[in-house]
Amino acid sequence: MLAERRPIGMFDSGIGGLTVLKAILEQMPNENVVYFGDTARLPYGSKSSETVTRFSEEIVTFLMTKRPKMIVVACNTASAYSLPRLEDLVPIPVVGVIEPGANAAIRVTRNKKIGVIGTRATIQSGAYLEAIQSKDSAVKVFQMACPLLVPLVEEGWTDHEVTRMVAKRYLEHVVDCGVDTLILGCTHYPLIKDVLADVVGQRVILVDSADETARVVENLLSTGGKAASSLIGPRCELYVSDMHLNLRMQIERFLGFEIPRIRVVNSEFQEVA
Predict the structure, then answer these.
(1) Is residue 236 flagged as an active site residue?
(2) Of 25, 117, 214, 234, which shows the fewest CB atoms inside 10 Å?
């Protein structure tokens, strides 16, 4: 019973991982979540693997003070670079977003041609390529870094002509390669899923890593006897490392509901607001 009451700990370089949080709350409405967004040090997508791993270790150490029953790395870049280290660091399950997305893409592809879009760091890490081909070496993977999409999403241009033009430019090569499945390898991308679907056409199936990760989390908690049977405590607690002017508006746009309080911590992970 004690495990049921403990929260799910989650983190991302910023607020993109809130798409994973939203998917988890939709699939598991009795769970409560403690989420940390490293808004002072984003983006992770342009940083070295050593820096991303160090940041991830610091955040997980902070989340462990909340006594979570699981850690969800709701960031593709951190999943690509730091997951093995985090698994060694803590005695609870650690779930990233790459394996769930890769597994789902393998299940649904018909012609064994899978596209992947994400940040430069995620694409350069080759994490999706490795995850897919380790399970099915016959699959061809076509990757494309799309660095401009994240700021467009955070600006709120989720259904804007500029976003559509940028997405079309990025995805031209991937579509021309004949993929029938496209992994949204960044947690911001579910917010522009409709735009991406229009750009790639109906024959391409979009794989949302947020939804797939939520399914993995639900399965692990249920089979491990750690799923909450009723909601106890707050639905979600949000911590950030910097509270900029439009952050609350952006967070509520990602989640689709209001947050009563957003807590701010300093560089030593002490709460200051």
Answers:
(1) no
(2) 234
